[in-house]
């Protein structure tokens, strides 16, 4: 791969008509397995000490690089070892006491992140794609209290993989915990910090799904780059009679330039922190700012309104071109890498929902080709847990069968009805409560066991 100088990268950035180009996140992954122990206070202190030692300079160093290069670094984040993996020595068999211990760990993570100026800390996680250990169940059942009692902690539960199928018992339990978490927080905002996955990557820098995987080292810096506005502007600047091939080339070139900025800043920040540089996540992550929207990219590509016929095809083309362009610009690409379609965090998605063009069913179809899944979707607060479990199962099986990452981050907003507007503020944005099909799937989702792995899992 050709080595580009910093001057060349900065010149590339200057040549772009930049629209909200930013480094969406720098995420420091930390291994906390050595912090496990039989005494709660000692475990908490070891966790606090390890995170402080490794991340004490993260916010300040990121701020310095932002000033140096003039590229905003929006979020400074930490991802830790799945917490269920370090709960074992603390477990007594008394469910209530053990849940309290798990919540104490969550509060320790939250307090430590706050003291270091970290925006979010992920890894309050359990890996339940085949079965649930006692510790997994304890962590899951602690989610409502842990997420309502903390500000920065993010949780993720892995329910399915292509190799194992989907754990339906854990899926039903998670649906109940999503309902309970929503009920404990204003407008259900606790659920904005909670995501369930199929085929979750271990190096994802984006929240709420970031955790430091078991195959990672002691400390790794991963970067998430975002530039929907840059891609939209590049398409708009093209000739109106561009062929689809020419449009794809335009997207690839934009993705290359965006990714190069992330590669430069990520490597330099990792070196300053004295940790290994991991991956660049190529995902286009929108915000509620005008022009910083994945939906608006699709519309610039020629789709009348996001959600209309042709949307899935255009999104597939966009994601593929972003991956092809970004892949050549980074030493290692990972995470989710594609395009996010979070309804509450995308100005264009909100408009499409309000217009009636974008429905939950269409979103599900789009998730077959995007980088994640049903994301930041608000549904009526009285939606039954069984329906939420069915939604999760539908979405995650798209990932299982297609051997891709899919996820669900859904918010049953307490007291809210279809069509009402819910405002979460900041990066979480605002959304209309969407209609969900409430036909009862309980006869299926309440069965024990798991949906078996598909034939394509047998690739050994």
Explain what this protein looks like in three dimensions.
With 460 residues, the chain is of the alpha/beta class. It has a single domain (1-460), classed as Alpha-Beta Barrel (Anaerobic Ribonucleotide-triphosphate Reductase Large Chain). It is 43% helix and 17% strand. It contains 15 helices and 13 strands. Strands 1, 2, 3, 4, 5, 6, 7, 8, 9, 10 and 13 form an eleven-stranded mixed β-sheet that branches. α2 packs parallel to α5 (95-115). It is globular. The mean pLDDT is 91.
Element order: H for helix, E for strand: HEHHEHHEHEEHEEHHEHHHHEHEEEHE
The level of helicity is 40-55%
Shape, please? globular
Chain-averaged pLDDT: 91
Domains (count): 1
CATH architecture: Alpha-Beta Barrel
What is the CATH fold-level name?
Anaerobic Ribonucleotide-triphosphate Reductase Large Chain
Major sheet description? 11 strands, mixed
Specify the CATH class: Alpha Beta
Terminal Cα span:
32 Å
Number of helices: 15
Strand segment tally: 13
* Overall SS class: alpha/beta
> Measured on Cα atoms, how large is the radius of gyration?
21 Å
């Amino acid at each position: 791969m050709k080595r580009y100088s910093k001057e060349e990268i900065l010149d590339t950035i200057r040549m772009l008509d930049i629209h909200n180009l930013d480094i969406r996140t720098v995420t420091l992954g930390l291994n906390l397995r050595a912090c496990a122990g039989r005494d709660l206070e000692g475990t908490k202190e070891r966790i606090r000490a390890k995170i402080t030692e490794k991340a004490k300079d993260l916010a300040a160093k990121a701020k310095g690089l932002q000033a140096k290069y003039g590229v905003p670094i929006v979020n400074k984040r930490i991802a830790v070892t799945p917490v269920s993996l370090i709960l074992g020595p603390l477990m007594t068999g008394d469910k209530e006491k053990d849940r309290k211990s798990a919540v104490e760990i969550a509060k320790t993570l939250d307090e430590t992140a706050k003291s270091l100026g970290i925006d979010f800390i992920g890894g309050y996680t359990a890996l339940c794609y085949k079965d649930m250990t006692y510790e997994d169940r304890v962590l899951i059942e602690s989610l409502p209290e842990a997420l309502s009692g903390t500000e920065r902690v993010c949780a993720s539960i892995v329910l399915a993989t292509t190799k194992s199928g989907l754990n339906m018992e854990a899926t039903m339990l998670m649906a109940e915990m999503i309902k309970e978490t929503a009920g404990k927080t204003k407008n259900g905002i606790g659920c904005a910090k909670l995501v369930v996955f199929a085929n979750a990557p271990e190096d994802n820098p984006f929240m709420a799904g970031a955790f430091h995987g078991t195959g990672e080292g002691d400390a790794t810096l991963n970067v998430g780059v975002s530039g929907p506005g840059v891609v939209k502007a590049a398409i708009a600047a093209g000739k109106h009679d561009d062929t689809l091939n020419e449009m794809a080339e335009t997207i690839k070139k934009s993705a290359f330039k965006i990714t190069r900025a992330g590669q430069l800043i990520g490597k330099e920040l990792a070196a300053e922190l004295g940790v290994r540089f991991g991956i660049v996540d190529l995902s286009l992550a929108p915000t509620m700012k005008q022009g910083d929207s994945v939906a608006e990219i699709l519309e610039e590509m020629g789709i009348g309104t996001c959600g209309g016929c042709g949307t899935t095809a255009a999104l597939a083309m966009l994601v593929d071109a972003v991956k092809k362009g970004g892949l050549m610009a980074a030493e290692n690409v990972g995470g989710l890498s594609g395009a996010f379609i979070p309804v509450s965090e995308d100005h264009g998605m909100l408009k499409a929902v309000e217009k009636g063009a974008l429905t939950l069913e269409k979103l599900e179809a789009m998730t077959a080709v995007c980088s994640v899944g049903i994301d930041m979707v608000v549904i009526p607060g009285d939606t039954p847990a069984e329906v939420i479990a069915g939604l999760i199962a539908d979405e995650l099986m798209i990932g299982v069968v297609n051997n891709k990452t899919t996820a669900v981050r859904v918010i049953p907003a307490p007291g809210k009805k279809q069509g009402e507007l819910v405002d979460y503020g900041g990066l979480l944005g605002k959304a209309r409560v969407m209609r969900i099909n409430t036909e009862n799937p309980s006869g299926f989702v309440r069965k024990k066991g798991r949906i078996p792995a598909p034939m394509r899992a047998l690739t050994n």
